[in-house]
Amino acid sequence: MKKLFKKIATVVAAVSMVAAMTTTAFAADDTYHVAGAEGLCGVNWDPSGNQMEKQADGTYAKEFKDIKAGDYEFKIATNGAWDNGEYNLEGDASSGGANAKVTVEKDGSTVLITFDGTKAAVKVTAPPADTPADKPADETPKTGDSTAVVAMVAVAAVAGALVVASRRQTANN
Fold it and tell me: How many domains does the chain have?
């Protein structure tokens, strides 16, 4: 009787594990999107744009570059739609919660928005002080790889040495 009970318990445990693994394997992860002001997001309040990327630590992130100075609002939308859940800096904003706000003080800033599954966070990084956003890029020619030039000089030196050696040989004969 004990052997039969052990076999049944083993089968039930195995079936339960397979069912749990199957459910987990086929469960789709939610996607999260940053929707907000066009000056920040590139499009105006589109819940299906600007999908956040899942990070190794399980959080989600979206970076916006070269943002002009100003005040912007945004929310995190779930699965590209407003009715699937939305979040702000305080957490769940699905029931008419306020938009998250971010102030960018300098043109050319980078805005990083992260989401931990319950609330958003925002970090603004201003451009370096010595390279304002309106300063043209450095146009000084860059030095390249000189390997080809060195090889050509070496070949020319060897050829010159061969010519000199050949003339000495001819002169000695």
Answer: 1
| Residue 162 within a domain | no
List phi, psi (to 5°) of 48.
-100, -5
Could you say which DSSP state residue 51 is in? B
Sign of CA dihedral 155, 160, 163, 165: negative
Q: With respect to residue 43, please indicate whether it lies within any of the assigned structural domains.
A: yes
Question: Among all chains, which residue has been given the structure tokens 């938009």?
Answer: 99
Cα separation, 51 vs 99, in Å, equals 18
The answer to whether residue 84 is domain-embedded is yes
What does the angle CA 38 – CA 99 – CA 63 come to, to the nearest 5 degrees? 50
**Of 30, 72, 68, which Cα lies nearest the Cα of 52?**
30
C-beta of residue 75 within 8 angstroms of C-beta of residue 36: yes
| Tokens of residue 73, six digits | 């609002």
62: CATH: 2.60.40.10
pLDDT tens, position by position, 15-71:
455 445 544 444 468 999 999 999 999 999 999 999 999 999 999 999 999 999 999
User: Does residue 132 lie in a domain region?
Assistant: no
Q: Contact, 147 vs 122, CB < 8 A?
A: no
User: Which residue range(s) make up the domain with 39?
Assistant: 32-125
